[in-house]
User: Fold Heparin-sulfate lyase N-terminal domain-containing protein from Amycolatopsis mediterranei.
Amino acid sequence: MMGPGWYLRRLSRMGPAEVVGRARHAVVQRQWRSALPTPPDWPSHPRFTATLPAGVLGKVSGEAVKRLLATADELMAGRAEYFGVERTDFEAPDWFLDPKTGRRAPSDEYAFDVPYRSEDTVGDIKQIWEPSRHQHLTVLAAAYALTGSSAYAVRVAEHLRSWWAANPPLRGPHWVSGIELGIRLLSWVWTRRLLDGWAGAAELFEENPDFQLQLWHHQNWLETLRSHGSSANNHVIAEDAGLLAAACAFGWFPESAGWRAAAMRSLDVQLARNTFASGLNAELASEYHGLVLELGLAAAIEADAAGTPVPDSTWEVLLRMTDALASIVDNRLRPPRQGDADDGFGLIVDGAATDRWASLLGSGEALFGRLDWWPPVPGDDVRTPLLASLVSRTPRASGVRPGRRPAHLRDAGMTILRSGPLWVRCDGGPHGFLSIAAHAHADALSLEVRHDGVDVLADPGTFCYHGEPQWRSYFRSTLGHNTLELAGRDQSVSGGPFLWTRHAVTKVLEVHTPDNGPARWSAAHDGYAPAIHRRTVELDGEVLKIVDDVLGGGSPGAARLAFHFGPTVTVMLDGTTARLRWTVAPDGPDSFAEEGSSGGSSADGGRAAGSLVADPLVAGGGHEPGSAAAGGRAGSVAADPLVGRVSGSLAGVVRTAVMELPAGLSWTVHRGAAEPPLGWYSAGFGRKEPATTLIGSGSPGHLTTLLRFS
Assistant:
């Protein structure tokens, strides 16, 4: 639970209008406690007309159907996985159980009394909320649509009836957060659409008073308690998208026309506010870029299909977001691992093995057309042909699209340096979005380096949100990123989970990204004022040079320079030289990706799962001074090109690199340490695995690092 101090700090980040708005919400919540609002009468013979055009299901590729059915059949067998936790109860799930902790959230309490942030009381709320987004039901409904097998439809009906019975309006944890209601509504729209043709569809939806009650209360909640102020991030996009989609597809209430109009207006405004002019999501968290783009596309297409005018400005933002995504992905279609990531999707109608980012780019290509500089995109998902079939006219946007692939997205402060198989992300952007920068990390001037899609210098990820504050702090800390820490503190000041009270200000000083020849980037931030950290990065062929300088007056304190390696990279440290090695299949990292993934990407964030895994040199991940790992020269260790064990098959191509580290620092190697955390990689929310981290400690100065690939 958050203490009084957190609430005071949170209040301090709100403006007067937000304070007034939250007071109004509190009044409504008190009123609802004693008297639920009453829905209007249900029309006598509602008809669902938001169906797919004839013949569109035949356009789905056989491979996409195969992947979808593999996931659907796992669900039919009662198996599902959320955030690294396997569930085997999905024939008839307990909607309030957290399988990770074994705790069960209260189901009978008034929704706004549920202490959902308290893991001791409710368990991990993400484990409870995620199945109730009902995105597994859209998968099962898609399996029915593509096969005609009624078993999938029957299971969908069983789950919906179970959920509606267990979650009466405003009771329990599933009525607390608007983003959950919004995504759930979008799932219901697509579930009904995909079940069209099943004999029981009308009885489950249009003729069902339980559905009527749920549908109205979901939409009334979203219209009344919409996120605003410092919370108007991806949450408000999900709320607007769900309300708009439901009011279009199930437009049977007297309020439906008003809900449609209000949601469309808000979505148009909020998409623009949540997006830089360059097209990147303003939260500077790559997975939320994907979430917002998925939600925005689904909602705009739903409105267009229903004859609700979609402003050109909405399509223009979605187009810019699509082009921005195409510009920043690596050659395996993986975007950066920047900021928070919680594996959130807006709409799922594909199997788990379908590449999310390829699917999004495929949808963008179908709607807007590809540019010459776009990377090749495999067109073999379920979602793209279904979405494209609903658009009544080709979206037109008045903005000028980039004539060449952007390397520097100035307003977002993101620069991508490329050289052959090398991809380098340089972070020189704002700390985060809005006054609380909820999903930001203290990662100013950090780098990501990939070789042919494999994480070499990796952003460690996110791992968790609630319940494990030590791990939450580590994964968003300065030391948890490939950048420089001074005086043992973060560049930006945290006020608690999803709250930063002081934001480091970063300025890009130089960008030079020619089509051929050396590329250069330089930026600085004031997070340690009066000291200034300046970093310069040069990429020349297969050589990366990183120079860190600490400038300004005063005593900046001790420095720690961190380099985090991907989990497939084996590291041998000999003094100030680190030798790196990893193995990929002969035809590239995609063959070592998680089963069924495309282009080295996977549902867990797209990590290529290579075959080399190094163990800790010393149990616990720490190292004694004087050891080879700490900079000494123990001959038996230095002679071995691989420190740690090698597991799995060595078949494939061995890649190597050499890293020359700043000699003025004392270097140690860490892997899988828990007290305090250091040396971890989170491939997806709720999952972490040991990975090697090098830490250089000493006095700040002119620090030069060279990374040479061979």
Remarks:
- The chain is about 30% helix and 20% strand.
- The chain has a mean pLDDT of 88.
